[in-house]
Amino acid sequence: MARRSSSGQEVLLGLLTVEPMSGYDLGQSIRASIGFFWNESYGQIYPNLKKLAAAGLVAAKTERQKGKPDRQVYSITPSGREHLKKWLAVEPQSEVPRNELLLKLFFGVQAGSEAVIGYVERMAKRESSYLEKFRQIERELLSQMRRYPDVPYWRMAARFGQLELEAHLRWSEETLTILRKMAANRRRRTTGKEKHHAGKLHASHQAP
Question: 126 and 162 share a domain?
């Protein structure tokens, strides 16, 4: 069985199975595709490409451009494909999620419902924007069905993200309803206490 790795180099190998790309192209491809569910350091793209080339897993070719600097275009080699297959045969590593919003919500009593409402509202706005991007990706993938054999797998990965975002938005609606009720009750209690206190002060001033 192949050993586990940090996956940074395998990400590049996987993307190069689609088509040859430059380092810049790979960065753009990461942003437009796997960037929605995999955080890969852009600063490691070129160092990893050099390591892959030194290991014979990718081949580099200089491509001349009219009016622009030459660029290095990388393609995966047979050895690179074999390495990628071995990596894909290893069971995916499970990871403990880190979600600062949920952490702050857990301690929400200390922050107050009004503050947490703002966090959830802004999260919902961001997630709605991401969801629209996923729907756009779905439309684009459908138009690429005949060009790339990878498309069904890309759609599965995109569908996971889409359903996850839809679940986040349902959760945010439910959570905001509860938080707003809590905030309203808190305001009513505060107003009631203030009125009660004002009434006592008024009564004490009226006393002979």
Answer: yes
Q: Give the CATH number for residue 77.
A: 1.10.10.10
> Are 144 and 183 part of one and the same domain?
yes
Work out the burial of residue 49: count CB atoms within 10 Å of its CB; fewer than 13 is exposed, 13-18 middle, 19 or more buried.
Answer: buried
Which pTM does this prediction carry?
Answer: 0.72
Query: Three-state SS for 58?
Result: strand
Pairing of strands 21-22, 58-65: unpaired
- Provide the CB-side half-sphere exposure for 86 (13 A, CA): 12
Torsional sign, CA 82, 88, 91, 96:
positive
Other Cβ atoms less than 10 A from the Cβ of 29: the count is 18
* Final residue belonging to a domain, choices 88, 121, 154: 88
Q: Is the pLDDT of residue 202 over 80?
A: no
Contact 11, 40 (CB under 8 A): yes
> What residues contact 3, with CB distance under 8 A and at least 6 apart?
90
3-state secondary structure of 21: strand
Q: Per DSSP, which regions of the chain are E strands?
A: 21-22, 58-65, 68-76
Residue 42 maps to a domain: yes
Model confidence pLDDT, tens digit, residues 7-64: 889 999 999 999 999 999 999 999 888 888 887 888 899 999 999 999 999 999 999 8
